[in-house]
Specification:
The structure is a homodimer of 92-residue chains. Chain A is an all-beta fold. Chain A has no helices and 11 strands. The radius of gyration of chain A is 14 Å and the shape is globular.
């Protein structure tokens, strides 16, 4: 997802959400992460949202990040879970 | 919070939410954690909820856990964040 101005911001995730069917989520976090850093990580997502088309692809959910400011700059960290939490665990 | 049947389920958290004023949240997770295990951890909470009285104390928010089933049993893990995410970071 690296060509074009809009696309440069987006990362496309193909996720195991525990259902057996891959879930695709697009997220505007390429300023903060390279795709290689995120392979195999367990992330937190809101999945009960209607699919949203982004750059011609349906994004089926929203990844959750923690955002704060440090030295006048916005810092963003995807929320990453420990490996003992399996794909498909629910948030309560 | 250990006397009485209802109280045995509850843990009372006194949290730094980045505002400078402690935030108290009660959570029914004593079956899963002892208080000592949780000192100093960075947790995830929903804080834009009206305070809710529990056992005579106002609980000002809800801690977020991941829940799944393993060998027929419910497993619960509080979502714990890395130390590079400061108290008061916002979820997006």
């Amino acid at each position: 997802m690296r060509s074009g101005k809009e696309e440069q911001k987006l990362l496309k995730f193909t996720l195991d959400d525990g259902t057996g069917v891959d879930r695709v989520i697009l997220s505007e976090i390429h300023m903060y992460y390279e795709p290689e850093e995120l392979v195999g990580k367990t992330l937190l997502a809101i999945t009960n949202l209607p699919p949203r088309p982004m750059m011609g692809i349906e994004s089926c959910g929203m990844l959750i990040s923690a955002v704060h400011h440090e030295e006048g700059e916005e810092r963003l960290h995807l929320i990453m879970l420990d490996n003992h939490i399996p794909a498909g665990a629910k948030m309560y």
